[in-house]
């Protein structure tokens, strides 16, 4: 399992950054390669992405969600991945968004891409595009403020 960590400071209040992140169906607007995300219910998502020129699909479950603090997930089928994004108050109009992504590169091409840092570059680009997206808007496209507790606790 490989781990990627990244962060970016965005010039919006923590609630604005968090609220936008909960709008999963908007991810294709700033995440490279993401074709679509369908939110099935409060806890489940269906992803479709272009990975190395091939369309891949998988389902994910949100395992933890606390407004203005964190969202954690793991895949339930398809490409094995999990992660957490946290939101840190820096001041009234500045938030640090921190992302940790764990994934299992499959096959020789993904393993080579992992060794070359391609996934790490993509994550850094996605965070930069999130910053540009939310700062240009200065408002979220929606919000979901519900709590989800890890069902395994």
Straight-line distance between termini: 23 Å
Globally, the shape reads globular
CATH superfamily: START domain
* Total domain units: 1
As a percent range, the share of strand residues is: 35-45%
Assembly form of the protein:
single chain
Q: What is the typical, i.e. mean, pLDDT?
A: 90
Structural class: alpha+beta
User: How many individual helices?
Assistant: 3
The CATH architecture name reads 2-Layer Sandwich
Q: What is the C-level CATH assignment?
A: Alpha Beta
Pick out the low-confidence regions: none
Say how many strands there are: 7
Would you give the CATH topology? Alpha-D-Glucose-1,6-Bisphosphate, Chain A, domain 4
Radius of gyration: 15 Å
Describe the sheet with the most strands.
Answer: 7 strands, antiparallel
What's the arrangement of strands in the largest beta sheet? Answer: 1-7-6-5-4-3-2
Residues in helix, %: 10-25%
Element pattern in H and E: EHEEEEEEHH
What does this protein structure show overall?
The chain is α+β, with helices and mostly antiparallel strands and 153 residues long. The protein has one domain (2-137): 2-Layer Sandwich (Alpha-D-Glucose-1,6-Bisphosphate, Chain A, domain 4). The protein has helices at residues 14-21, 107-115, 118-137; strands spanning 2-10, 34-39, 44-51, 54-66, 70-75, 81-91, 94-103. Strand 2 (34-39) and strand 3 (44-51) form a beta hairpin. The longest helix has 20 residues, at 118-137.
